């Protein structure tokens, strides 16, 4: 089975690196391969649909349409694997991923999509992602400039976020409060996520027919 990390290159407030989502998705795939037999990890997709962050320096986005096409063609090229799981580290990729998965499944391909969960009031560059990055790449986290952003639950922000981008709801690009983040908490979060991911993959694989080589 092939695990494909889906990330993004986008602002994560003043304190986290641009490739935070890609780093997290790649780590989850790496840990998945350590828990589920015969998992091969593909190179991460480092660009996604990040238009909502375009007002902040450093954000690079290929958009929903291009990402959907990329994922469809990736899925079509993976027929030699028993199945493919897209591990999505960026919420903005969701529409493209859902559309690509629908088409690939319609074509008879074995595709699973999975994404980590988190608090609705801590969805971007807040305590969750900051803790995880302190665990994975502490030298790239600048706690000295970490500060809260918009802390309302994401559903309450979504309409304005869609209309005006992240800058319309948060002057620093943060959706959450990174203060209090720790590497220990980051490890606990990663372990919770990978346990959920591994469980989802095992359940899915059990339902698949035996793959003919």
TrEMBL record:
Pfam families recorded for this chain? Creatininase
Is Ion transport tagged as a keyword?
no
**Which molecular function term from Gene Ontology is one that the record holds?**
metal ion binding
Instruction: List UniProt keywords, sorted A-Z.
Output: Hydrolase, Metal-binding, Zinc
Per its UniProt record, the required cofactor names are: Zn(2+)
Q: Which InterPro entries match?
A: Creatininase-like_sf (IPR024087), Creatininase/forma_Hydrolase (IPR003785), MftE (IPR023871)
Task: Give a GO biological-process term.
Answer: riboflavin biosynthetic process
PANTHER family given for it?
2-AMINO-5-FORMYLAMINO-6-RIBOSYLAMINOPYRIMIDIN-4(3H)-ONE 5'-MONOPHOSPHATE DEFORMYLASE, 3-DEHYDRO-SCYLLO-INOSOSE HYDROLASE
NCBIfam families linked to this entry: mycofact_creat
Spell out the family assignment given in the record's similarity comment: Belongs to the creatininase superfamily.
What this protein is called in its record is Creatinine amidohydrolase
Source organism (scientific name): Prauserella rugosa
